[in-house]
Structures are given as C-alpha cells and as structure tokens.
Amino acid sequence: MSSQPVSVGSQNLSFVEDLFSSYLLDPNSVDVEWREYFDSLKNGDERLSGGWTASSPFPSRSMFNPPGLGTDIPYQGPAGKLDEAARQERLDQLIRNYRVRGHILASVDPLGSERPSPPELDPAFYGFGEDDFDREVSTSWVGGPATRTLRGIINWLKQTYCRSIGAQFFHIDSLQVRLWLAQRMEETGNRIKLERSEQLRILQRLADAVVFEEFLARKFVGAKSFSLEGAESLIPLLDMAIEKAGNQGVREIVIGMAHRGRLNVLANIMGKSPRVIFREFDDADPELQIGRGDVKYHLGYSWNWETSLGKSVHLSLCFNPSHLEFVNTVAQGRVRAKMDRARDFKRELGAVILIHGDAAFAGEGIVQETLNLSELAGYRTGGTIHIIVNNQVGFTTTPREGRSTTYATDVAKMLQIPIFHVNGEDPEAVAQVVNLALDFRKKFKRDVVIDMYCYRRRGHNEGDEPSFTQPVMYKEIRKHPTVFEGYMNSLLNLRGVTREEAEKIEKDRRERLEAELTEARRDDFIRCVDHWGGIWAGYHGGPAKEADSPITGMNRDKMSQLIRRLVELPEGFRPHPKAQRILEARLAMANGEQPLDWGCAEVLAIASILDEHRPLRMSGQDVRRGTFSHRHAVLYDLESGEAFVTFNNIINERGYVNLHNSPLSEAGVLGFEYGYSLDCPEGLVVWEAQFGDFVNAAQVIIDQFIASAEDKWDRLSGLVMLLPHGFEGQGPEHSSARLERFLNLAAEDNIQVCQPTTPAQFFHLLRRQVLRKWKKPLIVMTPKSLLRHKDCVSSLDDLSEGRFRSVLPDPEAPKPEDVKQILLCSGKIYYDLIERRAEIGDKHSMIVRIEQLYPFPTKWIRELLAPIADGTPVAWVQEEPSNMGAWGFLRIRFGERFLKRFPFERISRPASASPATGSSRTHKFEQDLLLKAAFQIED
Questions:
Q1: What is the mean pLDDT of residues 417-426?
Q2: How many CB atoms are located within 10 Å of the residue 903 CB?
Q3: Quick one: which of 914, 909, 915, 913 has its CA closest to 931?
Q4: pLDDT band at residue 820 under the 50/70/90 scheme
Q5: pTM for this one?
C-alpha cells in the first residue's frame, strides 16, 4: 500500500524526514506521489538538481510547509500544557520567522534609528515562558550543536539574522537556494573569521577612503566632489569583491556607478593617479576641453588589478552622466560583449558590479528593466553584483517621501535572489556579506544585492546645507566618528593592530597625496591623453572623410549563393505556408527571376557580414520575425514549434549569430546594445524599435550616451538603430520616429542619420557601417509600407555595384534647361511624388532623394544641381508637420536660399502638437493636399 502525501502534522514529521532522506539518496526509492512532492520543492530549477545529497542537512520544518502544517498563529494557552511535538512545531515556527523576518530587528543603521519589533519574533507569541528557556530542544537543522536550550537557539538566531546583517531570502521559491543560504549563514552566525592581515587590509582601505576625502575637502574648498564621506566602507567592499571574484576566475569586471564616491573609487580602486584628479580640480588645461569633455565625477577609467593570489582582473569603470541608473544596462552590455568575444558562454569570466543610490534604486524605472534582463538568455551575464550605497536620504527627500516600500531594495524581490542589508560601519559584517554574495553568484549565476546602510556626511554635494531639511539626522552625523576611527578602535581593543601601525597608515596616505598634489601643480605637468587602443586600434572618430566610404558591392554569384543558403531548411522542417512563400520568392530573387525586396536585401547584407566572420547582435521587440513580417530570420516549425535560425546556414559557430527578441523595454535594451557596441567594433550591433515612435522611451540613452559620448568621454560606437518611420494613416503613435530630435542632436559629425529608399541602398548602408573604420552610431529611418511596395525593389546588379550613395538623382529628371522646380525629399514620400508626377504628366519637376541627412551631403547635392539655372525654386517635401521632420534642420543650415543659389521653401503638413492624425481617411486627405501643393495643382 503506497504512502500518500496528504495532511502532514507535527505527529508524523519524523516519517516525512525519513522519506525525504531516502529520496535524497535515490528518488526512485519512494512512492511516486512522494517523489512528485519532493520534486516540487526544487521548483523546477534543474540547474540546482546536482546540489541535493544525502549529506546535505535536512530542510527544517521551518524551511517549507508540507500540506497541513500550521501557520503563524499565536498560542493561546499556557506553555506547560504543550506536548513535545506541539512544542517542537511552535519552535519550528519561531525559527522560520527569524529566517523570514529577522532582518527587521537587524542593527543595520549606523545612526542607530529604532526599528519595530515584530511580535512573531517574541517567544511569548508561541506560548514560551521563562520555564522553557533552559529546556534543551532538537536543533540539528539550525547549524551548530544537535541540541541546545531555547535560550541558546534564540541567541544564535539573533546573532545570525539580527546583528549587523539583515538577510531577505524567503521570497526565493527554490528550497535548495534557501537551504544553501540558511546553512551558510547559520553555521557561522553570519560572521566571517578574518586573519590579522585581512583586518589590516580593511583598515588600510578605510584609511585610503577617509584620507582621500579629507584631503580633497581641505585642498579644494567648496569644490564639488560628491564625497564618499559616511560611506567609506564602499572602498574595502569593492576591494574584497574584486579580490574574491578574481580568485574565483573572473577576468573582466565592468563597474557602473553614479557620481557619489566616484572620485574615491577612481583613485583607490581603479588606479587613476591622484595627480591627474587634482589637475582636473585645478582645471589647469582649459584649452583641452573647449566644447567637449565632462565633469571629473562622471569620467570612466580602466585598470589591470592583480589579486593577492596573482590573478589578473581587468577593471572598467563606465563613464556615466547624472542620469544615475541609466548606466546599468550599458555596463551589462559591455560585459556580455566581452564574454562573447572570449567565447565564455558559461558566463564565468566576466562580472558586472553596479553601485546604486538608495533613492535611485527605488525610484527609477530603469532599475526594474535592468533586473528583468538578468535571467533572459539574450542578456544574461552570470549574475550582477548590486551594491546600494544607502544614504537614507535622496538629495533632500526622505525615504517616506521617496518610496512606498519598506526597503529601497524591495523592487529586487522580483528576482529569485538574496538581499543583504548590512551596517556600513561594521567592516567585518561587510566582509561577511561580500564573501557570501560572491559565493552565491558563483554557485547559482544569479544577481545578488548588498544594501550597505551609511549616511552622507556633507549633504548631496559640498555646497549643499543638509541640515536645512534633515536637522535631526545631521545633528547625529556631526558627532559621529569616521568608520576608520571606529574600526581602528575595535582592532586596538582586540589587539589586532597597534596604535603606531594605525597612525602610520594614515600618515603614509597623507604624505602620498601631498606629493601627488605637488606633481599636479608643476608647470611641466604632462597630461596623458587616452586614445583608442586594444580592440579599437585602427578605428577612429572625428570628422567624416570621403575615404571613409568603402566599396560595399559584392560578387553577384556570391550573393545568389548566400540567398540560397538562407532559404535551406532542415529535413522535415515545416514552416508556416506564408513564410514558405517568402522563402520561395527569395529563391527566385537569388536566381535573378525577380528583383529583391527590402527583407531579402537586409538578410543578404547580414549574411554577407557573417560570411566574413564578423559577429551579429540584433535585438528588439519581435526582431526575429520582424514587426511587419518582412525578416523571418528565425522560422518556426508548424507542428513542433521548434525554432530554426536561418543565419546558422551561413555560420554555425556559436557566438557569431545573436538574434534576440527583447522584453518590452526601450531604455534598458537600447542601453544594453549600446554597451555591447562599445566592446564589439568589428561586428554589426543592431537595436530595432517595434515602431520608431517608441524610441522616445529611450531618450536618455540617446541624449546622454549615443549622441554625446565621443564628445564627452572620447568613446566610439558603431551601434545601429533601426526605427520604422512613415506616415500611413496608423495614428500619432505609429508614424514618426522623431527624425527632428536626432537632427537636433547632430553636430561635429557625431552620428549618422539616414533614410534609404531602396533595398540596395539599405544593403550598402549596413555593409558600410561594418566595413568602414570611421565609427559612429547609425540611425536609420526604416520603412513600413515600402517593405512590400511594387516599386521599392532592387536588382542583384544594384547590390553588386558601388557603395551607399547619400544622394540619389532623379532617374526620370527633365533636361537641366527644362527644370522649373526641384523637389528635395527623403523616404516614402518619394514614391508618392513620382506616382503623382506620372499621373499628371509633369515634365518640369526634378525629384531628388536625400538618403543621408547627417552628415549632410552638401558636396554631392551641389554637384548634382550644378547644371540647374540659378533662381530655380527648391522645395523640401516631407510628410511630417512643419515643426517636425527635417525641415527645421535644413532651414537653419541653408536659410532662405538653398546653396545660396535657389529660393528655398517647404511643403509639409502644418505645425502640430501631435505627429499625425488617427483617422485613415483624414490621412489620405492630408496626403493628397501635400502632393497637390508639391505640383501646384489647384482644385
């Protein structure tokens, strides 16, 4: 007769324990019902299946509740009436609640704020009285001795969960993960044993941090530095994290952080010479920064770190604007690119450390986007280490004004990861948390959060008076000693260090900084200028040059061969009938039987890049199929649903084809792809918006990184942004990719903005972006209706010849002497114009397409229009309202006379607050009016 996993009370928990022990040895040794129940405790996490062993401690009754086990109900009767089984059950509940709620009592605030005491952590809640405290109970599942008194077990639980560390981990579904964390914390009382040399190193790192801040405040009075004072434990925390990660095999660490403490991190973690930092404070080289550069506390840096065991770790601190959390996914994208380059598909050789502020972590939505990427296949990096420098105030905003949650970290509970709150003035508790966090990351390859409670000694910046708004907090802060003093006194009392050693540590650091300042102020100071090296050697930025436009055409037979390979399917694969027809059409295109459409030219361009062993990374919502069903780079079997990546027919080597449908995110994903592009100059890195209109949700990434990074930080990127754009009666949110915004950002040849009108042009444009050594972000206004327009096609010959052309002449232009007007345009409106010109039999209008709006191709237009008589009217024709599109950009550039030869005016929709009408009939009416105005047709 089989045993049924039905209601389990305290009277038969021993029976369950025996069954579970048998299951750990051999799952098939227990009946199927119990096996299924125990399997369910893993929550389907197959990555953890290897961690269950018979030697593992049995999960206590407080780690999971079998059906029928009681919940947190206070005991109503006298304790003496409890039998042993009932007493044990209530003890289990007490233990469980310390694991779940002990963090509420933890002393994590260095300022000593009072915290509420949950009733479920009071033994009286369970009916325990004074007579019970010295009674021995079974505690083998808590860690430590097999039995101890109730008093002893409560003290041990307080040591573990209510001292300087508060742990939140019971939101994690996986029993195996909870078990691992509980065992690691409870077997040591959540305390690390440090050797004297380790304690001395922590003291030295604290001295580095404290002395640096004091030195800056004394030597550069009133200068903004966004001091780390009050949070100096960040420096030993990072020191320990990098050491531990390096010794675990990590070879690349990318750090993202805001401005608070950045200078201290640069000097004491990243290896940036203090003399360079001091020179920047003196602002002694103004001629080097005319119109460019950034404030010193936004700058990045790279450094090679050698661990105590001789392991080398390359550190990269990302440059970051004041937009705080937006660097998060940029850092993650960089590490993913480094991993792919190293063929590290197990995600073991790289790590991301993100340093957050408490107010920003709780308040900025990009944090949720960042967290959501962590376990997605296309964005996984093996676990990010999140460090929150918890100031307990945001600028002047208190936590009760800035968040609706208990902790700043509560948003992180969306993930199956632990959250450790730690008192920043207990460096050894910080060391325990770092050690535990890094081990967790290595074992489970998931994110982990360290919430380090501290304070801001000087307010938001050095010119701020914090006691205006937080007088009580800053009264306490003013009398608070530094963490260095506190830890030094602790070690003196424990005889871990002598006073002479401690004083020498401080003295040496002050003398070094004085020497560095002296060097910084020398007249013959030589500033080292970073230039592109490493993987960026051979690439360049700066002004555009004609020589930077390589030949992008290909052999016709080679292209036909690539298309044929793209349409080959595995034996027995059954695609959707409509997809099958697209493949058949592409085969006809390969054979020269019909011209190429946009989709075929695009996949051919990508295939040609892959064929040259250059990597592809492309992401965005629906990119595998394409929002408008034109790409079909990934096909799905009708019966099995199995996916087939067509580009794998070109190159099947892992790491070269990265094609990922993204989550519903613009800012986070675009930041990730931008970061990826920073470490992949040789490849094609693409982000595609579902509709170009949605790009405005990522405007911070565009403004603060993509458009300005070369000017501010001397960093290049070849990122491609594909933004479907075109007015087709689909309403105000499905018409405009806001071309005008990109053109407003365009200066100093910082970006490329193109709107190609033929498949061949798009083919050449993508290939040019990869082949050219001049690296700039490329923004492409891509089509929607043109994807299937009968005239928007190209021959194989068009693709095989030449290169991308920034201006396309009119193939049916009248003779120069017959031209009565010149219509300049870009994009879909060209096809409407040539159709209307044919309808009315116009013989005097010349229609010129501007395929690249920036850098603007003035030279080529001048040559094209040279034969045309001066004074011939020129009109810019656009679908967008007059206050949008390219008109404003062109008007500023050329004024009232185009090229100083031709009267210049616009033909467009009138100015509007919204991009387009939501009525299809109104759209057609407006479009007709626009075309009539172009050809001066009167009703």
A1: 97
A2: 14
A3: 909
A4: very high
A5: 0.90
